[in-house]
Amino acid sequence: SSHPLDLRLPTPGCFADPERAGLDADAVFDGMTEHLFFTLGKLAPTASNHDLYMALSYAVRDRLMTRYLASLEAIRARPHKTVAYLSAEFLIGPQLNSNLLNLGISKDIAEQALRRFRIESLDQILEVEEEPGLGNGGLGRLAACYMESLASLQVPAIGYGIRYEFGIFNQLIRDGWQVEVTDKWLKGGWPWELPQPEEACFVGFGGRTESYTDGKGNYRSRWIPSEHAIGIPHDVPVLGYRVNTCNRLRLWRADATESFDFYAFNIGDYYGAVEEKVGSETLSKVLYPNDGTDEGRRLRLKQQHFFVSCSLQDMLRSLGNRGIPIEEFPNHWTVQLNDTHPAIAVAELMRLLIDEHYLDWDTAWDITTRSVAYTNHTLLPEALEKWDLTRFRSLLPRHLELIYEINRRFLQQVRLRYPGNDAIQRKLSIIDEDGGKAVRMANLATIAAHHVNGVAALHSDLLKRQLMPEFAEIWPEKFTNVTNGVTPRRWVALANPALSRLLDEHVGPEWITNMELLTKLEERQHDTAFLEQWGATKLSVKRKLAGYIHRQTGVLVDPSSLFDVQVKRIHEYKRQHLNALQVITHYLRIKNGQAEGMAPRTVIFGGKAAPGYYMAKLIIRFINGIAETINADPDMEGRLRVVFLPDYNVKLAEQIYPASDLSEQVSTAGKEASGTGNMKFAMNGALTIGTLDGANVEIRERVGPENFFLFGKTETEIMELQTNGYRPRQIVETLPELAEALRLIGLGHFSNGDGELFRPLLDNLTGFDPFFVLADFADYLRAQDEVNQAWTNRKQWNRMSLLNTARTGFFSSDRSIQDYCQTIWKAEPFPVEITCDVP
Ligand code: B1H
Question: Which catalytic reaction applies to this protein (predicted)?
């Protein structure tokens, strides 16, 4: 069902083919010239690269507007179900190149325009773009890939989140340690957002509730907040690939509430009023940098409620504007909770429906439960959000009342089903009564959601069987899986133009929107010439990364060596230290003259540690210590190099994935919910060395076990070890290479003779070893030996690499979004048509 629109909008150069209009080099040049002059106040001869980046971005943004407004208008005129993706993080990455690609402005056209400003390559301009680091890692990046796929699939959608003034910190490495620096991503101006102050929303906090009797004699409750904030929407257009659909990412910035504290100004409490102003402005100030651990900070709950309340009010308002009755909410909106960070939406939607729209409980609950679905992203207990009850009540007293009532009704059901079973009630209750009382956000989300999904097959299974067996027994149909995916536009087409050309030639350009077509590459798996071309393409990309590594770290690496890469947040469960120990073993073998058959390697690490996570920061120091010792040793020349690339972010990721030969996915089985970097590596032709964890399991199934280096204990075996008592020290005694590595570390061999520096790490590993690093060590070495073996037969390696690309089409986020649309959202594509007059 499509809907032609005659918007009579100023589509740049709108003529015979409106969808191609304004996309030629002359038009882009003209657009840049105007923006340079009128928007930026600069003259072309003195324009800096940043000025030209801004001018080109504005010119490109102009070319999104017709599609953007037509997409909004299409929904207004013919309402369709719209996906509302609620997420505290959207790690969208650089915007310019992605918009050029999706619009269909080729690099060549952009460079024709740039040459007229004496710029030779588009890369020079892309280089100066600041990326908004509005996320920690996989969860935030997933939200961004999903927004891109939704638009590319022409599904009406809006992303709701927070416009953090400071995103994830920038990472410096000083003396081998991580140093955090504030991320001032807005400082040079960010051209991709459209502030909409007239659509601001008010949000309350604190205060008290009171009961009253309404006109009809009903007892009601109402909330009298003690503070308010205003949310100002900042909209980022999200264009789909070569379609007219251009959805909206609506990020809320918190502002002070002039109208509410105006009174304070008048009665003379000027400083009191100023304090509230400062207080409410800090709300959207900074992203919490704790990927995977819940710190339970009050300001974070405040941030969550702030963006969720604004977003729900915005959805209700849009129904109102279109004259759609509120009971229709579930037919017009499907609300997806990206983890529990937006789970307060359950209580807030109930409050808005009952207190502000005067619906009765059952109607409100029916609307809520038909609209909301919840994605779980982790089983780690330290990541499950719990809010201290007293703190929760002081910030959101009315929400707590509503949660109590939701809980009371739910527990009544539980009692009927499990009479006399107190333990089950305690476990399923939204309120944790063991120890300090707390609100369990995962229980709230699960009770209200019509679907609860995990993010990979194994994870969804563990979610059902381990984390929530009773919920799954009560509501078996509620639980489902949607395996994560990543957008091939950013992660193949933009990041790896060399590979993309090859795919265009041998598969045809349709792969970019239909990744399953890549299986056609299998026809070439025995074609020697093609395999050589495949290898040469990889080598050319590795050369570029080698240049970057040299510029950033001063280390010279050999592009023909095996690029062995682990990039992701630093966390014990991800086991960067397991990889580091493997590097030490490799080093020792070379030192001891046992390096025969070992491939020359460049081991590359990257990733940020949460600022308060001591062990993760020590792991970074450890890797840098190893790198320093190895890179300075003449015996390692031509054999082994180790680098830690600072400040891993989306932009750097785009350089790294295409240049990798080996993808390290070595988490303890059962701990990594899915992983998405693993998919980006495999699509770009890297082979994986990995455990049976998260989406690794599905990657291995698809690429074939013979094209994947598997090692390590299974989730079940890990559980058994845990229950039967695990003694890491005993393992050290049976593995001389491991013992020698640990001994050297203890002697300060990788810390300039300081034997104490890594003591906490050694004690952790030989004492408890909570993530079973030593338990998997021997098998990991065995798998690494297989990697060395495979690398010696380069034709065979290239064949395996090709099969990884050929068989990982399933991990396109287009497939994930289609799954969500069919099984959870019941949402459909709604193509947007644009017509315009011949001028
Ligand atoms: C994932 C998080 C996460 N799971 C808390 N959980 C956060 C939890 O700021 N916080 O409080 C931030 C992030 N992130 C990741 O989600 C999983 O670890 C990955 O395995 C998964 O691929 C990714 C996307 O589903």
Answer: [(1->4)-alpha-D-glucosyl](n) + phosphate = [(1->4)-alpha-D-glucosyl](n-1) + alpha-D-glucose 1-phosphate
**Residue 217 amino acid letter:** G
What is the set of active-site residues?
Answer: 377, 568-569, 574, 676, 680
The pLDDT assigned to 259 comes to 55
The pLDDT value recorded for residue 1 is 40
The two structure tokens encoding residue 733: 């005694």
Task: Give the pLDDT band (50/70/90) at residue 6.
Answer: low
**311 C-alpha vs ligand 1 centroid, how far in Å?**
22
Neighbour tally for 368: CB within 10 Å: 24
Determine the Cα–Cα distance for residues 514 and 332; give it in Å rounded to an integer. 28
CA within 13 Å, CB half, 521: 32
Query: How far, in Å, from the CA of 139 to the mean position of ligand 1?
Result: 5
Q: Which atom of ligand 1 is nearest to the CA of 694?
A: 20
User: Structure tokens of 715?
Assistant: 């989730």
| Ligand 1 pocket, CB under 6 A | 136, 138-139, 142, 288, 290-292, 294, 339, 377-378, 383, 455, 484, 672-676, 694
Ligand 1, from 145, 146, 288, 378: best to mutate by most atoms within 8 Å of Cβ?
A: 378
Mean pLDDT of 34-51: 96
pLDDT in tens, 663-676: 999 999 999 999 99
pLDDT at 281: 63
pTM of the model: 0.96
Give the mutation target among 291, 380, 483 for probing the ligand 1 site: most ligand atoms within 8 A of CB: 291
Distance CA 243, CA 834 (A): 11
Residue 19: pLDDT over 60: no
400 φ, ψ (degrees, to nearest 5):
-65, -40
Ligand 1: residue whose CA is nearest its atom 16: 139
Which domains does the chain possess? 79-94+129-483+822-835 (3.40.50.2000), 497-811 (3.40.50.2000)
**3-class DSSP state of 221:** strand
Q: What is the mean pLDDT of residues 151-158?
A: 98
What is the sign of the dihedral through the CA atoms of 214, 220, 223 and 224? Answer: positive
Residue in the block written with tokens 């023909």: 560
For 201-243, how does the pLDDT look when each residue is reduced to its tens digit (9 = 90+)? 999 999 999 999 988 898 899 999 999 999 999 999 999 999 9
Q: Which of 13-27, 429-443, 654-668, 766-780 has the lowest mean pLDDT?
A: 13-27
pLDDT band at 260 (very low <50, low <70, confident <90, very high): low
Nearest CA to ligand 1 atom 10: 291
ipTM higher than threshold 0.95: yes
DSSP at 288 = -
Residues 639 and 559: beta-carbon distance below 8 Å: no
Which residues on neighbouring strands pair with residue 710, listed in sequence order?
Answer: 690
Query: Counting every residue, how long is the chain?
Result: 839
Distance 87 CA to ligand 1 centre (A): 11
- CA 739 / ligand 1 centre spacing (Å): 34
Query: 315-343 burial, b if ≥16 CB within 10 A, otherwise e?
Result: bbebbeeeeeebeebbebbbbbbbbbbbb
Give the model's pLDDT for residue 22.
86
Distance from residue 379's CA to the centre of ligand 1 (Å): 10
Q: How far apart are CA 258 and CA 276, in angstroms?
A: 10
The tens digit of pLDDT for each residue in 273-324 reads: 667 666 656 799 999 998 777 776 889 999 999 999 999 999 999 999 999 9
Task: Point out the ligand 1 atom lying closest to the alpha carbon of residue 673.
Answer: 20
SS3 209: strand
Rounded Cα distance, 221 and 478, in Å? 32
Take atom 4 of ligand 1 and give the residue whose Cα is closest: 377
Q: 797 near 572, Cβ under 8 Å?
A: no
Question: Mean pLDDT across the chain, nearest whole number?
Answer: 95
Partnered with residue 250 across adjacent β-strands are 160, 235
